Amino acid sequence: KVPDVVFKTRTRIIADSKEEKNPFDWKDLTTDDLFKDKRVVLFALPGAFTPTCSSTHLPGYEAKCEEIKKEGKIDEIYCLSVNDAFVMRAWGLKQGLTEDKAP
C-alpha cells in the first residue's frame, strides 16, 4: 500500500511543448491520482545528469520500458530524484525521452 500523500507536481499546460521554455503549471496530485487501481514501477535515482544515472540507470529502464509493462502487467513507470521538475525535464530531453509521460 502506498502512503496517502500529496505531490506538488508539474503538469502539462501546452500540448506541443518543444518550443516552450515552461509548458507546465503546478498542481497538487495525490497518491490516489497517480497510483489508484494501477500497477506501477517506482524507481529513484541519486541525481539527474550524474554519470551513472545518465549512462546506466535511466537508459536501462527506458530500454526495458515496454517489456516491463507487457510482461509485468505494469501500467506506468515513474522515476524519482532529488532534483526539481525543471532539472528533471532538461535531463529527460537530453536523454532523448519523450514528454508524453508527464502527469
TrEMBL record:
Provide the alphabetized UniProt keywords.
Antioxidant, Oxidoreductase, Peroxidase
Q: Which residues form a coiled coil?
A: none
Cellular component per GO, a single term: cytoplasm
Which Pfam families does the UniProt record give? Redoxin
One GO biological process this protein is involved in is: hydrogen peroxide catabolic process
Domain Redoxin intervals: 25-93
Among the GO molecular function terms of this UniProt record, one is: thioredoxin peroxidase activity
Annotated catalytic residues: C53 (cysteine sulfenic acid (-soh) intermediate)
Name the family: Belongs to the peroxiredoxin family. Prx5 subfamily.
What the entry lists under PANTHER family is as follows: PEROXIREDOXIN (PTHR10430), PEROXIREDOXIN-5, MITOCHONDRIAL (PTHR10430:SF16)
From the Swiss-Prot or TrEMBL record, give the protein name.
Answer: Redoxin domain-containing protein
